């Protein structure tokens, strides 16, 4: 039968009988569901740019199609990683993780159906993208935290291995999707190419439902007068001085961002409004937090302080996502201008994305078995935040390489697409250090009542990464700016953007590393 448990407060590290600990019986169902769901998601995602350029956006003049496809792709990805806020809230307050995952998965299936049916209808196709963003994004914080809920203090040491297996199977599904779906689009057309991921999503939902009797289910939290939002509001009401000023600036930034809709569009402006509010209101709450003591329990006040400190970590990792997600847009567009070797298995530039999940599946066990033990032997402890710092910087290096390749193309050279193997490899190394680590880090740092919400903020960092891409792209539409870039640097606008994003990553890697030296990690797992 399904087991319901209550979350407990954070407990200091103990020394349980680890040898007797076992993996929860529910893990195979969760992992199987994730493998099929990830195939479905990456199957449609990895052909989206090609489909938009080659089918849906044919009504645009040719020179504008790639840019328009890139914007649609990143708006979609931003939605995927914005809706975890909604999914986390619904899960924590109303339905719980299991029911939220199940019902949103059904909407997810409908979205896939829309893509297959409305291949020539923009309204129907974009409705399908919306439903997939809602379903995939809404379940995202629930699934990862649902994995963590299966563990307690007696077997929490096994959680890291499962989180890494969880991430490994994501890439297992992504690898086959990246290889097969571009071929399906090329040979069989959009209906079948989008229909296959829809079938896999239905199978994923069925697997998840079949495992329902093995799950540990943490019920949703009741209405809590000491929630994160309540404590933050009390702090701002009772606080004085700088805290209120910063909160006011956040509100002004939120409202002011909507005036940029004519330039950035609604989605980017809305996301920028959220960022502007959090950047100012977050520190405002932190400065005023002591005023909430007495009204709210000290333990909950400290929980809010912990969340706010974690949000700084999430904010500093956003540039990594702006680099990482462009491998499915900017890098594909570059690949379409490169030469496909006749002897290789590559039929389209989109298939290069399969390199990423393949390397992830190899690097995760290699790092655990070789890299991390070796670093510890020489006195360098690869803590989660140190790994994430290195990962952001390494991603920047990959964009230096992709920028050099773009310069060869701009010079008129016939460049083999196999040159992209190098930046894909470097970017994947950065991904393993950031994403795999960040998933477990986000769960472990979350107070019991805020796990779904904090995991959704981890996903929101990806949305903000997409926001940086849209802002830069909007800037590149200014002819005066692009002319100045070309005149002063001798670079094409595409090459300039690539080197710009590399520098962006290096700058934030320095900031992330500086903050990491002062951050104190905590653990929040439920009681046995």
Automatic annotation (TrEMBL):
InterPro entries: Dipep/tripep_permease, MFS_trans_sf, POT_fam, PTR2_symporter_CS
Xref: Pfam families: PTR2 (PF00854)
GO CC term (a single one): membrane
Main location (coarse class): membrane
Its membrane topology: Multi-pass membrane protein
Subcellular location: Membrane
Biological process, per Gene Ontology: oligopeptide transport
Transmembrane segments: 39-60, 72-89, 101-118, 124-146, 158-180, 192-211, 241-261, 267-287, 307-324, 354-375, 387-409, 421-443, 455-476, 496-517
Example GO molecular function: peptide transmembrane transporter activity
Record-stated family: Belongs to the major facilitator superfamily. Proton-dependent oligopeptide transporter (POT/PTR) (TC 2.A.17) family.
Name of the protein in question: Oligopeptide:H+ symporter
Taxonomic lineage of the native organism: Bacteria, Pseudomonadati, Myxococcota, Polyangia, Polyangiales
